Amino acid sequence: MSRWLTTVAIGVSIFAAVLIAAWVMLATTGLVKTYSVPTNGMADFIRKGDHIIAEGFSILGKLPNRGDVVTFTTAGIKSPYMKMPEPVIFIKRVIGLPGDRLEFKDRILHINDRPVSEYFDTAGITHLPLMRLEKDSVTVPRDHLFVMGDNSGNSLDSRYWGPLPVKNLRQKYWFHLKHGSAQEEDKTQP
């Protein structure tokens, strides 16, 4: 019995060492990253104080799908609304892909003349128009995405600074590590 326990202990130790080494390698390459979310721009799905893991495997060399939640850098985004002195990482939902036409009809967001709910589950998501989407349609240019926070009444997103360059993508939401405590929603946040 003692020999069996020793073998199991060695096996578990080797397995744990391999997992730790893999995690360190993936984290240093940016393919897997943990985040503590500082805002409620993606509430109710992701709230201020939540800890999440995002992965970059599924978007290597390809675009995310409409409805996917992605992380990206604000590097190179020029807008009077972007007041951060340094690029930061945001997390938002992909609404439009290259070539998609977005517009509001009867207070409902439409993608290519179809309600957004036909593309992905919109339960608990508030889409509000702003800027050009209130009066005109917006066509997402090549090599760009249109991203919005689920809590779009309280989200700095593509409605303010335009379509996101695909080169700014970092990872795709994978899962929650920990839900933060219920906090009162901030009035202004990215």
Q: How is this structure best described in words?
A:
The chain is an alpha+beta fold and 190 residues long. It folds into 2 domains: 1-30; 62-173, Umud Fragment, subunit A (Ribbon). It is built from 2 helices and 11 strands. The chain is elongated. Mean pLDDT is 85; it is low at 184-190.
Brief digest:
The protein is of the alpha+beta class and 190 residues long. 17% of the residues lie in helices and 28% in strands. The strands form two sheets. A seven-stranded antiparallel sheet has the order 1-2-11-3-4-9-10. The protein has a four-stranded antiparallel sheet with strand order 7-6-5-8, with no helix packed on it.
Task: Give the arrangement of secondary structure elements.
Blueprint: H1 2-29, E1 32-36, E2 51-55, E3 69-73, E4 89-96, E5 101-105, E6 108-111, E7 114-115, E8 138-139, E9 144-148, H2 158-161, E10 164-165, E11 169-178
Antiparallel strand pairs: 1-2, 2-11, 3-4, 3-11, 4-9, 5-6, 5-8, 6-7, 9-10
